Amino acid sequence: MASETQASSITEWTDVSSTNETMAIVSNGYTIPCEDEIMAVCRDLSIMKDIEKKAFSQLKLLSPATREHQFPVNESIACALYMTIVDVRMPYGPHDPQLQRGFLEAPCVTVSDILQRTNINVTTLFHRMKTVKESCDVSDAVSQHLLLLEKKYCIVSALFHTFERFVT
Length: 168
Fold this sequence. Notes:
Elements: H1 2-12, E1 14-15, E2 25-27, E3 30-32, H2 35-44, H3 49-68, H4 73-89, H5 97-101, H6 111-118, H7 122-135, H8 140-167
Antiparallel strand pairs: 1-3, 2-3
Helix pairs in contact: 2-3, 3-4, 4-6, 4-7, 7-8
């Protein structure tokens, strides 16, 4: 069973010598072709170049955890973009003085935009981010934002299901 899993994972990877090393995430002599995908998502969402680079760096950091848990590429990109956007928006964490005064500007891209572009749903993001939080270091800002997002989702979901019964 272990050799079967190992053989299937090797076929999914391509050798570094056949690709440009600067255009891929390199791991143990093999490469994951994700940079093109994350750059395409960032272009579609009109994300600035510096945030795009930070998202790619975040994707590299998440690579061992996402590979270990066999995340699809689009889910890995969604997690990396989500973490990057939250960290860029709240660089001092949940106790940012700008946040407490209400001077925090709107995000450059919303969670809904990320989910739509990567074609995943919010519950999948929650499950994947839980796995990422267990496997990697996640900033306080991301943890706090994710907790608030989950609470809002639970409230909106309950309201939706309540009113859906009245409509149907």
